[in-house]
Automatic annotation (TrEMBL):
Name of protein: GTPase
GO molecular function, one term: GTP binding
UniProt source species: Thermogymnomonas acidicola
Name of one Pfam family that matches: ATP_bind_1
Keyword Nucleotide-binding (UniProt): yes
Amino acid sequence: MIGSLFVTGPAGTGKSTLCGALKEWFIKQEYDVAVVNLDPGSEFVPYEPDVDVREIISLPDVMSEFNLGPNGAQIVASDLMLENVDKMQEYLSEFNDYYVIFDTPGQIELFAFRQGSPMLVDKLSGGRAMLAFVTDAVLSTSPSGLVSQMMLYGSVFSRFYKPMLYIVNKTDLIGEDDLDEIKTWFNDSEELRNALFEERQEMLKDYLSGVITALQDSGMFSEIIPVSSRDFTGLEDIYSKMSLFFEGGADTDTLYRDD
């Protein structure tokens, strides 16, 4: 594969919908793309997966074999992916000249916080991986909502230590002023600190100040990418980052064509 993007983030942020929108956008631009469903427990995905882990690992079979409920079976199924990685690599072998987008499980802990997940990412991507951390635009309109998602981003980054995009999805649900404020908070730690203190007043003031300082000093946060899976806003920005990282930006000139 040219390169891969593992899409992760909290439940409900629209990860699968974003994967489907990215696939549609890539195809419209005549770029070769494949989308892989890595959620063995998903009942529906809003796209046609090119590789589907559900064809390899059946959640009902896991529940029956291990005498588990749905939650326990999800955990076991996530761990079984590493045991079945050779089979998944076989399916992926036909996409050597493609960008591959991996739609990870809806519950972030099933992907980010399992022991074998970093190894799974390396094996499936052949060492050519980026991550996209998807956040919720509506939640991000409050300072505490933004900070909590940034902290979770930092936690995921520490697990994989790979290039990560900070995606704010569902921007079509908020106004331009709200989006501008989110960008200001993201890029200006002092503005974020002041807004957070105003929201929380004196509660946990020292703790929150320390958190913001740590996030700022970490160097993990370069920029925010606002997107909408509904109207495709920001999707070419995601592609631009992938092209730049995997191919040195060889194709980024196509981003500005008029056709």
